[in-house]
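I have been asked to look over a protein record a colleague put together. Alongside the sequence sits a line of tokens, each denoting a local backbone shape. Please read both lines and tell me whether the tokens look consistent with the sequence. I do not need a full report, just your reasoning and any doubts. I have pasted the whole thing underneath without changing anything.
>
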Amino acid sequence: MPLMASVVGVRDVRLVEVPSRPPGRGEVRVRTVMSAQNPGTTVTRVTGQHARMRDDYSPARLPRLTFPFTIEGRQLGEVVEVGPGVENVKVGDQVVYGGPQQEEKTLRAGALRRLPEGRDPEQFLLDPSVAFRALKRSRLSLGDDIVILGQGFQGLGLTALASLAGANRVIVSDLYEKRLEVARRLGATHTVNPAETSLVEFVLEELRGEIDEGSPPLGRGAAAGADIVYDFAGAPEGLRDALNIVRFNGKIVIAAMYRRALEAVNLGADFHIRDLQIISSSPGGNPALWPWTDRRSSNYLWRLTVEGRLDLRPTITHRMRFTEIAKALELLEKRKDEAIQIILKF
């Protein structure tokens, strides 16, 4: 029987057998060839650090996340059997789909995307949808100066997308040189390692503000800072930095769930005087983005990839066997200086 990756406890990833079934009407059976995942979310879940797994989480709106659960991801496979009524794909086609990572599965034909001929399949496994939602939530405008905290896979995805969207200066921060190197390849104009350079001082010096002569009511300091700060780091201290580097009327978009509670943050006079906005950006299904539904967003990102305008392959650092998925997740957790995105081969 086909194998599926299942998380049964903290850092306890197992390959379990799942039944194979023939396709019904409108369905196809596919055999997985390779896959990728959303590294940050996957690691926080596997390690039990996800916000919805903490003791202080209130399941009033979303249920608590408990073991066991599957490891989701985007996969590429080959169609091996077609059910009645299927016309959009045929046996032998290479297709892309989502869902639990497993060797074989039966899916609705309408949920598949055919791989464009002659293209590198790895390029189509990389899904920056979390980054895209954060960009849409922020309403980034042409010429905005932005700062992105954290250059994991989704943070790097935003670096690439913001450059496409017309951001002016794209300043990114991360503790690992490997990630900063990839960020520069994807469009970052400035990179900062906060362990070596004060992020606050760097941003306020670089983005000192440009104001018209003869308009001093708020002074030059009011214009200093980023138009938008995106927090992908997942550490609550990032919010303190964001408050210090965003300009008057600026926005802070929190795109990563904090892995622990924020003990204190100053939302006093300085916060109110500057008319700041703090915006949360959920992983998906956010009605606030209407009419940018998940489907519309996914279609657009696919088109950018097909047209060659979005290429996140520089984020791929490792290729491993699907049977090594537990080792791959350990690498993503413990070797952030090396691992960003891992492609699993079946």
In short: The domain at 129-287 is CATH 3.40.50.720 (Rossmann fold). Residues 301 and 307 are 10 Å apart (CA to CA). The chain has a mean pLDDT of 92. The chain has two domains: 3-126+312-345, 129-287.
